[in-house]
Design brief:
By secondary structure, the protein is of the alpha/beta class. Helix content is 50%, strand content 12%. The chain is globular and about 65 Å long. The protein starts with 13 loop residues before the first helix and ends in a 7-residue tail after the last helix. A six-stranded mixed β-sheet has the order 3-2-1-4-5-6, sandwiched between helices. Strand 4 and strand 5 form a beta hairpin.
């Protein structure tokens, strides 16, 4: 199905609209991609990918483009709409994504992978590629996942508690440099005031959340909903009795986990153990 278009002839889809505006502004300036790259100091291929909708770029490059084209705030506003566009996620996550954006606090347990809100781009890319994404769709999903991080990193950051099974920290990326970056990012996030990061050590033994990741969203109306997922599907749980039972299980697992300060020390020790890339 073709993209819907407004009466102006421009796309209503946020990602496509952003790419169209980039192409229009460069055409009006009469710049080539190479000349644009030389003027702004970025690889020209990045601008080509942004104009094709293959990537959204980061806020720094978008702000530079706004300044260069003398469109103060316009491109950044379009970029924010594109990065927060929930249609980038698969349909099964739509309801969850809506509730996550509304939540007043988030609690989470991770079985085997770093939660999306704490992933680096390299970690997200490798994980999504393993899940079958590739090409343009892969880059779209990476961009969308990075956009979600604003929930816990922005000015109005949502309180976020996560319990990471030790298995999360013992399952590295293939590239040691990228794995160091991910561990370093976890250590940095663990020191942010709105983030409480616990590690559940292997010697804690069996527990009630051993088989699936679990999210709890506290909503503005006072309700809490749960979302459980594995590598193949997710399920939103809104029935109060079931959510309350799961919350009791979560509290029991939190009691088994290391305190925040000890968890940070463990991550820092593991970061020191990752071999540095040899000098070439």
């Amino acid at each position: 199905m073709p993209n819907r278009r407004a009466v102006t002839g421009r796309s209503r889809e946020p990602r496509a609209r952003f790419a169209e505006e980039l192409r229009r502004l460069r055409a009006e300036r009469g710049d080539s991609l190479r000349r644009l790259g030389e003027r702004l100091g970025w690889d020209w291929s990045l601008f080509g990918k942004m104009e094709k909708g293959e990537t959204l770029g980061g806020p720094e490059v978008v702000e530079a483009l706004d300044q260069y084209y003398e469109t103060p705030g316009l491109l950044l506003a379009l970029w924010e709409l594109a990065t927060n566009d929930k249609t980038q996620f698969r349909e099964r996550y739509q309801r969850y994504m809506k509730l996550e954006a509304e939540a007043t606090s988030l609690c989470h347990y991770a079985v085997g992978v770093v939660p999306g809100l704490l992933q680096t781009p390299a970690y997200a890319r490798e994980l999504l590629a393993v899940g079958g994404f590739k090409g343009e769709e892969l880059e779209q999903q990476v961009d969308a996942r990075m956009g979600r991080r604003e929930l816990v990193m922005g000015d109005d950051a949502t309180p976020f508690r996560t319990i990471l099974s030790e298995a999360v920290l013992r399952t590295p990326l293939r590239d040691t440099g990228e794995w160091r970056e991910q561990l370093g990012h976890l250590a940095e996030m663990a020191e942010i005031s709105n983030v409480a990061l616990h590690v559940l050590p292997f010697d804690a033994g069996l527990h009630g959340l051993v088989s699936a990741d679990m999210w709890f969203l506290r909503l503005p109306d006072g309700r809490t909903v749960a979302y459980t997922e594995n590598g193949y599907r997710g399920e939103l749980i809104e029935e109060t009795p079931m959510v309350e039972r799961l919350l009791l299980t979560y509290d029991a697992v939190r009691d088994l986990a290391l305190p925040v300060a000890e968890s940070l020390k463990l991550i820092q020790r593991m970061l020191e153990e990752v071999p540095c890339d040899p000098l070439t």
